[in-house]
Specification:
It comes from Nostoc punctiforme (strain ATCC 29133 / PCC 73102). The chain is α+β, with helices and mostly antiparallel strands. The chain contains 2 helices and 4 strands; from the N terminus they run βαββαβ.
Length: 116
């Protein structure tokens, strides 16, 4: 069964444009090899970090939205953890609500006043 996921990761700011593109392609191919589909990549650009991470004040933010089996996440995150180009990552399982018809309220029986 496949699930929708969103992964946001931050690359080191000292990577050049070509190196950043190679890293993005590397992780995209890794996901595809693990069975991911519908991979959407958004390069959010270089931004200031809220606090220093591994002696870096800036980072290149990349967002991935994809559909993958649950077994694809562990190898993907392991590759990021071992990589020196990624300084932080987070994967979130997205709950996409299916449209359900509204529940019909049961009609309450009306009480009829008895006249005596």
């Amino acid at each position: 069964m496949t699930t929708n996921y969103e992964t946001m990761y931050i690359l080191r700011p000292d990577l050049g444009d070509e190196q950043a593109e190679q890293a993005i392609t590397k992780y995209q191919n890794l996901l595809r090899d693990q069975g991911a589909e519908d991979i959407q990549i958004q390069n959010r650009g270089k931004r200031r970090l809220a606090y220093e991470i591994k002696k870096h004040r800036d980072g290149i933010y990349i967002q991935l939205n994809y559909t993958a089996p649950a077994t694809a996440i562990a190898p993907f995150e392991r590759a990021m953890r071992l990589s020196e180009e990624v300084i932080r990552y987070l994967t979130i399982k997205q709950d996409i609500a299916e449209e359900k018809p509204p529940k019909e309220e049961k009609e309450k029986p009306t009480k009829v006043a008895a006249t005596v």
